[in-house]
Structures are given as C-alpha cells and as structure tokens.
Amino acid sequence: MPSLPNEISLDPLDWDAFRATAHVALDEAIEFLRGVGERPVWQPVPEQTRRLLAEPVPRLGSSLDEVYEEFRKLILPYATGNIHPRFFGWVHGAGLTNGIIAEMLAATMNANCGGRDHGAIYVEKAVISWCKELFEFPSESSGLLVSGTSMANLIGICVARNARKVGNIRNDGLKSYPNSLVAYTSSEAHESVARALEILGMGTSSLRKIPVCADFTMDLEALREAIEADRGKKLEPFCVVGSAGTVNTGAIDPLDELASLCAREGLWFHVDGAFGALGYFTNALRPRLKGLERADSLAFDFHKWAQVQYDAGCILVRKGDVHRAAFSMRPAYLKSMSRGLAAGENWPCDFGPELSRSFRALKVWFAFKELGVQKIAKVIDQNCEQARYLERRISREPSLELLVPVSLNIVCFRFRQTGFDANSLDKLNADIVADIQEAGIAAPSTTRVRDRLAIRVNITNHRARRVDFDALIDAILSRGRECVASASAK
Amino acid sequence: MPSLPNEISLDPLDWDAFRATAHVALDEAIEFLRGVGERPVWQPVPEQTRRLLAEPVPRLGSSLDEVYEEFRKLILPYATGNIHPRFFGWVHGAGLTNGIIAEMLAATMNANCGGRDHGAIYVEKAVISWCKELFEFPSESSGLLVSGTSMANLIGICVARNARKVGNIRNDGLKSYPNSLVAYTSSEAHESVARALEILGMGTSSLRKIPVCADFTMDLEALREAIEADRGKKLEPFCVVGSAGTVNTGAIDPLDELASLCAREGLWFHVDGAFGALGYFTNALRPRLKGLERADSLAFDFHKWAQVQYDAGCILVRKGDVHRAAFSMRPAYLKSMSRGLAAGENWPCDFGPELSRSFRALKVWFAFKELGVQKIAKVIDQNCEQARYLERRISREPSLELLVPVSLNIVCFRFRQTGFDANSLDKLNADIVADIQEAGIAAPSTTRVRDRLAIRVNITNHRARRVDFDALIDAILSRGRECVASASAK
After folding, report:
1. Residues 91 to 130 of A: which have CB under 8 A from any B CB?
2. If 0-12 CB within 10 Å is exposed, 13-18 middle and 19+ buried, where does residue B172 land?
3. pLDDT tens track for B342-389
4. Domains in chain B: ranges and CATH
5. How many CB atoms lie within 10 A of CB A401?
6. Which of A129, A213, B3, B265 keeps 20 to 30 A from B278, CA to CA?
7. Helix (H, G, I), strand (E, B) or coil at B429
8. Interface contact A56, partner B, CB < 8 A
9. CA distance B349 to B201
C-alpha cells in the first residue's frame, strides 16, 4: 500500500541491498563456525576494541553494511569460546548449526510467546510435551521454557512455596504462614537455589545445606536429622532440592531415595537437573537418575547437553494446576477470548513471571527434529567416555593429581609439585588455567574441591575429540613445568 | 583435526548442503517479511496443523531440509501477526529486518552472557550505557537486559525490597522486617507489578492500587492518604510504582511529583515504562515524562517502541551498588579471576536472577546503530500522530464512540447501537474484534474501560500507515452493521 509522503517505516528502502548483506553475513557466519577449531578458543577483547564499543549512543544511524562491518571487527572475534572443540569451562553447550537457521526464522516471525493463539504457542506446547514424555512425567503435568535452570529453579521453588499453604497465599504473602519455611539441598548444590530463596523472600537462612558423602552426593541421614531438628524448632520443612549432576563434580544425589523421603514427609521434591537430567535420554545413565521422574518439579537446560543455542531451559511441574495457580493472573487486557487471536486457555504467561517471551521453542524444535533424541544421547555418552579417557590420562601422569573420581562428565584435577605449599599450588593451577586460556589453546575453568583449587574440565561439547583432550593435557603439563621452573629460578 | 572413527559431532557432514539450505531459508524469510502486508494479519492454526505439531518426541532425526519444509508448512504461516502493518493488538513492536541478521549472528557466536570476559559482555555494557545516557541516569547507575518489563519490574521491586532494610536481608528474609512492607501503584498499573510482589513473598495484599483521576493517571492525593493510613497502622511503605504509559490507555502518571513525594517520604521510586519510557527519546513527549530520570529504578522494553525483536527489555537502577548487593553471589565455580576468560568484576549475573543469558544485546546494538535514536523517535512520534488521526476519524463516525481521549498511542473506542443493552454492546464489540482478526483484516485487541468492553488499538508499529487505520475503521463499521442486522433479524 502506498504511504503518505511524510510517513516512514524502518524497513529497508532497498530490499535487494538488504538481502545481499544478509547473505554475506550468513556466509561469513557459516565459515566462522566451520573453521572454529583452527582459531584460538578464546582471546581477550583488546583495550582499543573495548574503547570503540564504549561509544556514546548513536543519535544518527549508519548503513547496515557499516554496522555489520563493525560487528565483524569488534565483536565476532571475541566469542565466549564455547563453540570451540577445546572449550571445557563451566557448563556450556557448543551450539548447533541448525540453531543459526532457527534463530533467523524466529526473528522473522518475531512472535511474543507470552500467550494468545498462534503457531509459536503450539511449537512450545510440542516441546514441553516431548519433555514430559522423555522424563516420564504424567499428562496432567505442565511446563514452560525459560532462559535456563536459574530461572527454572526460581519458578519450581516458588510453586513449592505457594503449594505449601492452603488459602490465599498469593494475596497474603509469607507473613501468613504460621511457621517459617525451610528448604534442603546439598552443600554442593548450585547457587541459584539459594538465590531463589532470597528472591522469594525466605532468605538463605531458610536453606539447609546438607553435608555430602565422600562421592559428593547428599547425605540422606544428615538430611533426615536436619528435617527432624527443624520440626523440633517449630519450623516448617517444605522442599528438598536434589541435584542431578552437581556443577563442581557432576555428582548425582540419590534421587529415588529423596523422592521417597519427600513423599513420606510431605515435602515438595524439586530436582535441579541443569545438565545432568538429560542423561535420562541414555541407557547408560538412566538407571543412575532413577527418581527424577518422581520429582514434583524438574529444572533443566537445552543449551547445555542438548547443544541448543543460548538461552533455552525448562521447568516441568508434576501437577499442572498447582503450577498455574502460582502464576496465572489475567486482567481485562489479557483476557482469553473464545475465538480469534486471544483464544486459548493455558497461555505460557500463566506458568511463570514473564509476559514477554521470545520464540526460543523453535531452536529446541529444530534441534530435536533434526537430531532426534538418539543423537543427543550419543553425544552425552561420548562426553562421559571422554571424561573417563581424561581420567585415565591424568592417572598416568605423575605431575597431575585427580581430585575427584569421575562420576559423569566433569573432571577435577590439578598440577602437583613437591615443595609447593597449599597457596602456591592454588596459584600455580590458577595461572596454568589463565595461561592456556590466554594462549587460546583450551578453556577449562577452575573451582575449589575440598578447599583446594582445581582445574575443572566440563565436557558438554559435541565438537570435542580425544585429540582435544590430549592437547589440553599436553598444554597443562608443559605450562605447569614452565611455571615451576620460573618459580624455582626466582 | 581428524576424529577417531567412533567419535561423532553434530556438525553437518556436508557443509555445502547446510549452507544451501540456510541461504534458501534466509531468502524465503526475507520474502515472507517483505510481502507481509499482502497476507492476512493473522489466521488460526488449523486443527490438522495442530495435530501434526503434537507428534511424539522424535527419537530419530530427519534431514535439515525435511525439518525446514515442515517449519515452512506448519509454523511460518501462523505468526502472531505483530510484523503486519495492521496489527494493533496489545503492545507488540513490529520487529526490524536487521534483527534477522543480528539473531543469526548471535546464534553463531552462541555466547552465554551470564558473565566472564568476552565480546558480548562489552556489547551489553555499551547498550546499558546508552540507556543511562538516554534516560539521564547517573554514571554510578547499573542495568541489565532482561526478557521484558515483567522481569524488569520483578528485579526493580526486589532491589527496592532489599534496599529497605539495613542488615542481612538476603540471609534473614522477610520475617526479619519488623513491619510489613507496603507498595503503591495506580489501579491502571500493569499486572506484573502485583505478580512481582507475590513472587517476592509480600503478597498482593501488600500492594495498594491507588485510584486514578479522570485521565487515568494516579491520584496523588489518594496516594498521600494511603501512605499516611498505612503508617498509622504500623505498616511500612517502601515503594511507589509509577506508570509511564499504562497498558489500557497510555496514561502517564505524574512522574515528577511522584519522584518528589518518594524523595520526601523516603520511598523507592520505580517506574514501569514498558513502552512509554521510550517517549523520552522524542522532543514532543519528553516534557510529559519529566521525573522519569529521577526514578530509583526504571523498567522498559526494546521490543515495543524500539521495534527490536522479541525478547528484549531492560532494568536500570540508579544506585549500582544497591542493585548488585541484591543479587551478586559468587561461589568458587563462578569466581572472577584477575585475567583469562573468568576476568571482569561486574558480571551480568550479579544484577539479576539469571546465570544463563542469551546475547540479546546484539539485536539492540544493531537496532540503535543502524537506525540511530532519531529514527526510533520519529516512529514514536508518527505512531502518536496516527493515534490522533484515528481519534479524529472515530469522532466523525456516529456509529463509533471514543471511550478515552487519546493521550499517547492507544485508542479505546467501540461500536455503538441504540437499543442494545450493556451486555449486548459488549458482546457486539467482542464479536467485531474476533471477526476482523479471523478475517485477517486487522488485529486490534479488547480491554475493559470503566466496565465497558473496548476495542483497543495500540500503535507501536513502524509498518502502519494511515491507510491501515482507514481499513481498520472501514472493517469495524461494516462488520458492526452486519452484526447489528443479523441480531435484529433474529
């Protein structure tokens, strides 16, 4: 339709020029990804680049080509590194090539998935339904895609809190609870559990961090005692958070026993399965995760072991009506209609705090459709096998010390050197990690295990090969020896 | 590097075939967007399509071409509609063509923007710094990109709650507050404010919905009385939430007076500026938004009036240290290092509940860089002018009744008919809206204004032209007359 002379739009004046730039960008993006293994895993953003990025707000625009060129020079070379075959830091997936297409298509449709009746809503419903099927949740359960497990933990524990009290908790707030609520998790649980309790108004003092056994899983006896002690103090236990794969060591809490204990004690059972839950897709790991399927709520990510692009996590809740009761709130401007664009009863905004929601379901859909669960599972098994390979290599190197037996896909170890005290060894290992990151060779991270600094290798990377682990070990050994030599020379 | 025979990756076996499919998808996406105005604004997802989407989880994969073809048939035709020039429902932006490129590039880099030291972090820093400049926030203020204003409101009010109490609130929770906290907002405020208070453990009973004046802005006198009354009851007022553009009518609360009142009374001043805050970019609207720049925290969206792709919102907090104190929590596995990939002091995860965060800053960066603030502002002015145009057209039509004088970019009106009672008129107007949505002509939404169902036209759409509003009015008049005739014939 023709516009009046004074009307503008933000669409390209020249669509062909836009198309040409878009295709160039796509080609270069694909080449960038294809050649990722030949470049450094990471490089710091140079001071000059930081300065250029810290420009004042652009009052006037630039051509798309200029903007793209700036992106290419200032931003693209400085990715986090998790797309690289030798990225082993934290728990990041490597991303999928089909995710590039999915995100480009989602951006074209530009759906707001807070609610209403349109295609994206049915794609998210399908993805949630697949998750219910995969984790053997009942048909009356519910789910929501979220940014990740931090948000999923917040939602799960919020539902647990609200479900605790009969009556109008949403109206009356925590002050209407006769006794203070208490939650339980292991000392190895992810910080997002404590943060959820803070946000929810209960404070971290309402969280008991139960000690772990030698294998870093929650000590059930200590849990039982803590619950009893709290009841004795007129506190009200309401929730146990089990970990299906802890962030430090990959430990899996005794989920089946926790599920039974929660059922017996009338407690909500929430499982933080950020990456580990997806082990349920493989025959090798499923038996170790037994009990997961009995959780009242389950939090996990697609952007870790399912390799979906950031961000994509999920919360499942066994009782869909309880989940909805914790969040649904529909003023007149959000009322469902019986037909038209505002149709549909269960909108995603009824199940979480967000009303504006991207179409992140599409990249999950593309991932599962193209790969199938079997191929995702195969990479999970491969990563666990690689962790065992790394463990074997470490055990053969006198300069390396394994700090925790490998339980899943995480390997905690360190370089050792006689004559170095505890602090010097910590510093030595921190230096080794920073050095090989800065050299662009590989990117493990660090953590503390039994109060010692550990080199931590996490493997949720479909691009990693055995040769990459060999390269990692070689680099650690060589850098370690150099550090020691330089320290001795001083 | 060569892989061992038994090692797989999820990368394409044939990169050229992948590239070809990606380019086809890109071309079709661009054509889809270019021709959007010639297609229906919305169409329901057919029953058959819903059934096909509701398939069991794919255990085995498919070729990328098959998956893409399924997307093209089952998903692409059923977009929400907000990319269309005649979408006027709720408050959705229309999206930008450069957003397609930005999202494709962000997916390639696949950054997790929870923290650490890489390019995406500096892009988000730049975007936040632009926002501080645009809204005249001080240099010590902080900010975070989030999914949207619902999340930004939650974060802002969480900081307000925590800032209220000296001492270790994060440890002790709400039970350590001597008096119950109370927040204030107008009866026209967005539901996410109430929901935030629920999630934060205070309950909606801790929120006073202050009556509005004839122009739907908060009644300051009523606010003062409510604060006084609560203090008399030993409750503790802590926060006032002002709206910069209410969802129903676009009303702007008296922000400057609210800022002064909060300063005087020692209350946190949070502004929900979901779409309206961006009016601050234009010379015409800035004076009406005065006081916004004095907020303790400001929530707003880029995916509304800045037309950025879903989802992209922001929270700014005047005192960065108070913001950080509400969320930062760094266990060993997230410790900052002095150098390497784990360097950098202020990580985004220190300012909100999310540790997994997509690189949504890139699409905001592309939008501001290509368009410049001036062009975004021009569309905002154009949309307000279009609202006034629509108001004039309505005032000339005897069958239409304006329900609220246009204040910004939202027009609430309805079809009227003598002899119809209140309920019949409500139903008539709901039918008109559903009919023209289903016919694919235009997509306004509905709300209730002074207990009457209103046809609500929101204009945050850079593709809309005057002719589109003419088409909307024509459709409403013609459909209204048909409905009346059919009702009379019964």
Report:
1. 92-113, 116-120, 122-123, 125-126, 129-130
2. middle
3. 888 899 999 999 999 999 999 999 999 999 999 999 999 999 999 999
4. 111-358 (3.40.640.10), 370-489 (3.90.1150.170)
5. 17
6. B265
7. helix
8. yes
9. 22
